[in-house]
Amino acid sequence: MTIKYLTKNDVLAAxxxxxxxxxxxxxxxxxxxxxxxxAVALSPVVLKTIDEFxxxxxxxxxTAIGAxxxxxxxxxxxxxxxxxxxxxxxxxxxxxxxxxxxxxxNGKSSSTNGWLSASALGLAVxxxxxxxxAHPTGKMGNMGVANDTTYETIQxxxxxxxxxxxxxxxxxxxxxxxxxxxxxxxxxLSGGFIAAARHPLTASYIKQNAVIGGLSKAIExxxxxxxxxxxxxxSIIDAIVKHTHGEILAKGxxxxxxxxxxxxxxDVGKVKIKTESDNxxxxxxxxxxxxxxxxxGRVATYPDVITLFRAKDAKALSTDEISIDEEVVVFKISxxxxxxxxxxxxxxxxx
Length: 351
Description:
By secondary structure, the chain is of the alpha+beta class. It contains 9 helices and 16 strands.
């Protein structure tokens, strides 16, 4: 069997492709590059398919919890990601059974969630995701355990600036629904973003409930974009449309952006775009969750992938990168064109 090692080129592709699936959130591009490049420099990072694990091997999720609009003074160092996993391993009764680590979503940095911890602690990165795109709540990427009162999870976090007294380390055990609320509070108290490790689940469960191959989809899209990187923005977006079976919803100018940070570590607001013949509104809760057209009504809703590209260079914009009067392109991939995890299909994860 050929062993697949993640490379520095894969890091770039994952962050670029993940930026499209980020849907306006999904962490921070430079942070993703920094963490994943450290991972591949530290030790070989193995990427495994779910079929390469024994059915009773345990796989954990690594993520970052917080608000991506640049409204808070957060800090997550590489050692925070590693420490979060260590805290989970310390609390688990059988840490030797934990063999792999996956991300709950693709994104600017979240596609590379877990790579550094895997490198440091001898785990494999799993080619599966809790959701193909980025989402605002842990429930959406929890692959069906969010409201399962029979499943007792372990969740751990580490992050925050030590010099301001905001650094927090915490591990909790209980149902996913209630321990997740504790982690949201910890994220806010630490400065608005915190590294987390959670949910030991068997490989057989992951196989039935995750998006299998979800990480590869981001990496493959990234390589597609890199092939066209010397072209203009319009040509790059056309290549993305073709690769993903996506569609362009609108082209126009940003005329308003209203974002508010909440004490539950969410950025909530709206982005408004004026086109030649329409007014379009993107609804934000950390990520772009819906698009309304004044002429057509609702044209996209989570779990559709919703991306806002800067028109001139096809940069996928996070909510903190959007400027008034900027020319943009609103892009959608219908959820009919990619697999959905159990968590996304669970009506109980929606408010």
